[in-house]
Amino acid sequence: MTRFNAWNVIKNGLNDQTGWDRQWRDPEPKKEYEIVIVGGGIHGLATSYYLAKNFNIKNIAVLEKGWIGGGNAGRNTTIIRSNYMMPGSHQFYEHSLKLWENLSHDLNYNVMFSQRAHVSLFHSPPARDVAARRYNIMKLHGTDAELWDINKLKKNIPYLNYHNARFPILGAAVQNRAGNARHDAVVWGYARAADQLGVDILQNCEVTNILRTNSNIDGLETTRGIIKAKKIGFAVAGNTSRLWEMTGLGNLPIESHKLQAFVTESIKPLIDQVIVYGVGGAHFYISQSDKGSLVFGGDLDWYKSYAQRGNLPIVQDCAEAAMAILPCLGRIRIVRHWAGVCDMSMDGTFFICNTPIKNLFLNAGWNYGGFKAGPASGWYFADLIANEQPNQIIKNHNLERFEKGINLDERGAGPDPKLHG
């Protein structure tokens, strides 16, 4: 595989780009693998990459029912941050952010990570106190965190609605190392790097049945034949409950809801940061892409769904939320919108854990946090599968935590998955 560097870019620019190889192979499935990861999104590909890189395991397959980048990985708003405070969650997302900071070099692929700052507005003195508590905890852990008063906010982001806002803006909590990345580039980069280490990436390979004997899975029936494996990992986001049902293990403590996103026509550079706010039932986030389009979204649909399409009520809700703080966008046209499927857990926190089946491992329940968590998710899931026991950072991120009364409720919204946006 041709390595990306300045010399190869120049050389191929002079020979009509004829010197590039395929970015990853399209192999035929083997009859048996040491490890099979179901799900070819960011989490599944990252897991296979770190299994091969960190543990030198080569006989690995990633099964993707569609094409690489065709699922949730290509249906998000790509925000990356580590402004968490709960034990386990903070360390996890900070590790993920550090992996993001070196990911392009690690994968030899430009994932277009832009550390443009995450600016979370607050609108009341109590909200400022809550933000101060969270960001002070972050600073105690060595994570960058700032509180901007209204004067500093106006200096850095002068075009917000400071004078006639429905929700008066008092300041913002800011993480400068946060930002966003290009979702397609991330999955392509992980796929390319995993393939280079010998991982078989099997596209158009949907799991249709699970062959189970007592406490062990013997193999997977797929649209490309039966594939056996010594160990199996599920990393299929909103479709986890469908796959879990095939195992015969009953129900999972998650619900699948769709989260919509929107893209506008391109405009001149305006928004340098990721701007977020949530108050009075509204929730909104927005950034600007390199092409000039504004990318934004808000709350998820509260009804359960596997759909990957939008609807007009959420269009109106997000447009109203945008106009509340950015009235200058009133005449911008939305050119497309879509939905991804979020697997919402009861306390808003993920699962990376063992399961009642000895050789089956679970990666699920990512709520709103799936994209930013991708690198660390792959790192810790690979560690779990290789060692068959969880790292200390994720020891409570299991299916038994609700039985033990360990709720990792970062938002403090209670046991309702719809409220953990």
The rounded distance between the terminal residues' Cα atoms is: 41 Å
Q: What string, H for helix and E for strand, traces the elements in order?
A: HEHEEHHEHEHEEHEEEEHEEEEHEEEH
What Rg do the Cα atoms give?
22 Å
CA-based shape:
globular
Low-confidence stretches: none
> How much of the residues is beta strand, in percent?
25-35%
- Helical residue percent band: 25-40%
What is the β-strand count?
Answer: 18
Count of DSSP-assigned helices: 10
Major sheet description: 8 strands, mixed
Structural class by sheet pairing and helices: alpha/beta
Q: Care to give the gist of this entry?
A:
Helix 2 (42-55) packs across helix 10 (370-387). The protein has helices at 6-14, 42-55, 89-101, 103-107, 125-140, 150-156, 183-196, 240-247, 312-325, 370-387, and strands spanning 32-38, 60-63, 79-80, 118-122, 146-149, 171-175, 179-180, 200-202, 207-213, 216-222, 225-234, 254-266, 274-279, 282-288, 293-297, 334-345, 351-354, 360-364.
